[in-house]
Amino acid sequence: MSEINKKFYKKYDTIIAVSVFVLLAISSSYIWKHEDTAQYDIINTETKVTADQLKQRLESWVGHRLSIIERIGDDWEKYELKDSAKFVTKAEELLLIVPGLQALNWIDNNWEIKTVVPYAENQKALGKNLHDHPFNSVEEALANASESHQLTRTSIVNLLQGGKGFATYMPVVDKSGKVTGYINGVFKINKLIEGCFTDKTLLENFDIQISENVDIVFSNQNEEIRENTKYLQQREIKILDKSWSMLITPSQVYLQPRLNNNAFGYLILFNLFGLLLSWVIRVALVRHKKTFESEKKFRTLVEGAGDSFFLLNIDGKIIDVNKKTCKELGYSRDELLNMNIHDIDMEVQHEEYLRLWNLIEQNKIDNVETVYKRKNSSTFPVEIRVGIVTLDGESFATCLARNISEAKRLKELESRAQKLETAGQIAGQVAHDFNNLLSPIVAYPEFIRELISDNPEAIELLDVIEKSAIQIADINQELLTLGRRGHYSLEVFNLNDVISQSMNHLEYDNNAIKIDFQKSNDLFPMKGGKSQISRIIINLINNAIDAIDDTGEIEIKTENYYVEKLDPSNIIVPSGSYIKLTISDTGRGIPSDIMSSIFLPFVSTKKVDKKRGSGLGLSVVDAVVKDHNGFIDTKSKVGEGTSFYVYFPVTEDEIINTTDVKIQGGGESILVVDDDAVLKEVTTKILNKLGYKVQAVECGEKALELLKTESFDLLLLDMIIPEGMDGTELFEKSLLLNPHQRAIIVSGYAESERVQKAMDLGVACFLKKPFTSQQLAITLAEAFKEETMLVSN
Q1: Which alpha helices (H) appear in 612-711, and where do they start and end?
Q2: Beta bridge partners of 250
């Protein structure tokens, strides 16, 4: 090196070094600033996306619960919710499956809260009149609901149950357009919003504040969010006719790691590798920024989807998944990224996958149903929304898979209910026709015995006919029960007494089968139809007897039972007091493949070498239990036995002892109205034999003409006459001629509203076909008493 060059470098090396350092520092500062801006854009984008998702989630969450309240109002008559017990049952069912709803109440048209559900948490509100509520918003919402016949809500107010929230009012309108009351949904604001924001990571990463008007109704932070806060996003959330204002900003927990960038590292790299490397890094950082932003947006959307997400290539290899997928299938993310979709999908293998891929590309399908297998080998049905995207020139399938196990279960339950309803309607109609045919067969044996009293062989044959007719009548009654067309008296009684009486009718080998009755000595009373309860007891015990092949034991147990909250290991039994009946056997058990259908009509659990049953027993048990607002559950293990658990609601009414009645008439006059000539003749003969004066006609029109000229002590009216007026209408018109007219309604079945109307008009009794002389005599004796009552067998 020349002396000049040495002097030059000696003179300028420091300047050159400083210049390079300054240049690198300026470059590093530029990159540092640019990265800060890029980080701001990323955080701001994530905050915007999160705000949009929270707005949609909140509106959907609250809107779904408001739609349920509207649907209850629309289905008010369908589910007969004017019955307080049915309203409570329906409300408890909904509260169990709809978190975030504080209470479902019934308010009458005077604005008084009549029913609260659940009672324990909302009893402070019971009996309060909302005219006296301190907040004007309550009266305004109720007035708007009355006028518009639409669902309305209050502003955020102090709730009668305690805490802050809002109330909704869905008016129930009768056919005349009159408001008969309101379904009152109560939402405690913190409970409602926290039920929606179940993701703890979300609440840790973002500060959220929700206000109505100027009042803050929800905040996950102690300090108020200021409107000039960096990254702040504001969204309006529409809740019926009022709005919430939501402010959202990233928390310090979220910002801290993201603001510690690697700019200092870039500075070191610049010092080491020079200006050329700084330019390369700059280009790389720009590309990195774009990729990072795109991936962040994509990841935010995918993780917030709520369903399992897959990204697949054309061979079915899993390229990407979200956290929901890992949680649903039980695999880690790394495990899934080393798998093929065919390892999970039980129905769509490679050839079918390629066929579906082509259909998706042609926009011919966008939805697929299949079955997925979890890591533990369990399976579940899914509905998949599919599409094709192109990334860097390569095509991929996007799949959003939703678990539809619950939807399928509800659909199956609905299908089963429809089958039961259809079978019940057919069974009820057939049973009605049988009743008319059975009436003379059941009633005439008493007359025939008198005619052949000196022929014991003939009487023995007649006894067999009568016994068979009674058995047919019993099966017929099961058909009526299945069709919900039978009628029975409601009495208050002790279940132990009915069980003891029912056991006297059992036929079994007591040397081979032991029956142990463990009864509670302090059993609560229940209210219902004794004959129907006896029927389900006999059916369940006979089922147990038939399940025992040679020898075995049957245990019958009664006990008082209180449900404080839902027991997920049992069936859905709302909280309250019940009488629990357990009937267990040590028989062969019920196979799992028919357990789900044992309560369907004409399904028999008996073996082929057993006495063949009607297939109605358990379906009748199910129908009667539901008629008594009860619940039934079953547990069975093949080779060990079966247990049935029946829960009946407790009544607060007291048991009333009845006395015997005189069954012989005293010459009272009776008019029989029946369109069936045979039944009319049978009834007339029985009444004559019992000592009554009888006239009979075949229709209501002739009966009315006769009533204009003659008076009768009692009318015996067939409920259903194909042509002309029915029994209820005839009785109503007879009261215009004689306001004190006594009457009995007779039928194999009748629509409950018509029977109830007849009872409201003053009909003394209801008598079920087919009937014996004794049943008719007892019913007549009761009808001639001053106090009327409903009579059944």
Answers
A1: 617-627, 677-690, 700-709
A2: 206
Per the model's pLDDT, the better-predicted residue between 340 and 193 turns out to be 340
The parent domain of residue 92 ranges over 75-194
Same-domain pairing of 88 and 179 = yes
Whole-angstrom Cα distance, residue 530 to residue 528?
Answer: 6
Give the pLDDT band (50/70/90) at residue 649.
very high
Q: Report helix, strand or coil for 171.
A: strand
The model's pLDDT over 286-313, given as tens digits with 9 standing for 90+, comes to 565 555 566 666 666 667 667 888 889 9
Task: For residue 540, give the CATH number of its domain.
Answer: 3.30.565.10
Question: pTM here?
Answer: 0.40
Residue 693 covered by a domain: yes
Tokens of 500: 């003891």
Model confidence at 598: pLDDT above 60: yes
Give the pLDDT band (50/70/90) at residue 73.
Answer: confident
Radius of gyration of the chain (CA): 39
Give the whole-angstrom CA distance, residue 199 versus residue 179. 41
Answer yes or no: do 141 and 176 share one domain: yes
92 and 177 fall within a common domain: yes
What tokens appear for 589 in the block? Answer: 């058990």
- 341, part of any domain: yes
User: Does 640 share its domain with 693?
Assistant: no
Question: Is 776 found in the same domain as 685?
Answer: yes
The residue type at 54: L
475 and 593 belong to one structural domain: no
pLDDT tens-digit series, residues 473-486: 766 666 566 555 44
Question: Which has the closest alpha carbon to 401: 460, 484, 480, 318?
Answer: 318
